[in-house]
From TrEMBL:
The keyword Transmembrane applies. PANTHER family: NA(+)/H(+) ANTIPORTER SUBUNIT E1 (PTHR34584), NA(+)_H(+) ANTIPORTER SUBUNIT E1 (PTHR34584:SF1). GO terms for molecular function: monoatomic cation transmembrane transporter activity. This is Na+/H+ antiporter subunit E.
Length: 186
């Protein structure tokens, strides 16, 4: 994702600043703190908030800008197809293991069409959750995913996997279409 830019009076731009302490991050970290302790007491809640604020100040992250809308029907189709892919891949991996024959693996490069970091992360996560493939490298600069894929005997199989990965990206883009970035004036 391209950063939100602020335009200065002289016409130059600079990245927008972000707050180190983000309320949702503090809430989430506090809930994790309480889950680790296994109980909820006033002292633990206050301690959790303090630890969360300290973590946010010590390790600041830019705010997450999903920069996308949601199309419910396309999202339902994406989730449904993902579930089918997981089941189908599980059966295929089981078959490969039970056949006990030699098989070849491959590292397949997939050049994503979208330049969104959010889309790249979502596609990479979904591909890694499907049995038989795992992301071994993600290049943010070129939006390229490198995936280790199980049982790829030839180039045609690698191309089929690449097409499936790009189809997944298109389903993600249909379900969560990116919104254009608005330039923020200073």
């Amino acid at each position: 994702m391209s950063p939100v830019l602020r335009t200065r009076r002289d016409g130059s731009t600079r990245p927008a600043r972000y707050r180190a302490v983000q309320p949702l991050a503090v809430l989430w970290l506090t809930l994790v703190w309480l889950a680790l302790w296994g109980e909820v007491t006033p002292v633990l809640v206050i301690g959790g908030v303090l630890v969360a604020v300290l973590v946010c100040v010590m390790f600041p992250l830019p705010p997450i800008d999903l920069a996308s809308g949601v199309r419910p029907l396309a999202l339902a189709a994406l989730v449904g197809r993902f579930a089918v892919d997981v089941v189908r891949a599980s059966i295929q991996v089981s078959g490969v293991v039970l056949r006990r024959r030699p098989f070849r693996n491959a590292v397949v490069a997939v050049d994503l069409e979208s330049s969104s970091d959010f889309v790249m992360t979502l596609v990479a996560s979904m591909l890694s959750l499907v049995p038989g493939s795992v992301v071994v490298e993600a290049r943010r600069s070129t939006h390229t995913l490198f995936l280790h894929v199980l049982d790829v005997p030839d180039r045609e199989s690698a191309e089929a996997f690449r097409r499936d990965a790009l189809d997944l990206e298109q389903r993600v883009l249909r379900a969560l279409p990116p919104r254009p970035h608005k330039e923020v004036r200073a």
